[in-house]
Design a protein that fits this description.
By secondary structure, the protein is of the alpha+beta class. Helices cover about 15% and strands about 55% of the residues. It has an 8-stranded antiparallel β-barrel. α1 packs antiparallel against α2. It starts with a helix and ends with a helix.
Amino acid sequence: ASRAVGNNLGMITLYLYFLAINPMKHFLTIALLLITFSINGQIFKNIGVKTGVNFSKYKFEYTWDSHTPGHEEELDNPPGFNIALAADLIDEQYWDINTAFGIIRKKGEDITWTSPNNDPHSFIYNLDYLSFINVIRGKLPIMDYFSIYLSAGPRIDYLYNYSDNAQYFGKFMQLYPEEDFNEIVFGLNAGIGILLDLRKIKMGLEFSRNINFYPIISASGPRPDGFGDEGTELIVRDRTSIINFHISYKLKTIANNGEHP
């Protein structure tokens, strides 16, 4: 079983590699991952989905040019959403290992004032990531079928799509999206949740936080509109909080008992 788990994770890693070098194939990659999860379902204790809303706060660190000091500003943004296929590789009474692969959409917002009435106009920007997360969850049983858990583990996100107006995502200065966005972001996911463990299904509610090891945007030099000079710089860091509902179906129960849903 351990060899099967290793082979499965190796296939996922290989798919992520090809995704990174050929982003036009991301839909095929998702399909291959779904197939991998399905045909190898016997190595998982359960398989299911998790989905919910996420809230991103962006910290802008910017320097206009070589002659001005740097500034910082932190802004809240409209909520996004996420959905992922998830499975437990190990499921014990007091701990488990959960792996998930899915999509997370982060949003940004900018407000401008248009003439002639100086009316505010809101622009929404979308950043779409493929997200691969593996966490260890420590569980504290409260009742026979109910427990509270803490989770933490590594995460890798790949930026596979963004809005046509993403050049304005920098808010304080224009971007070169293909150059300034960091396509691959490594980080951690940590959370707390409640879990209801029934005979054939598991369901729960989770609050988690994505922690990045480096910025989602790193821009420097003159901007597309001619603004700035060699001293111009923009760094954007994000903090994303996630509220998810998750439900899974116990494959091991069916295999062991020969039961049918």
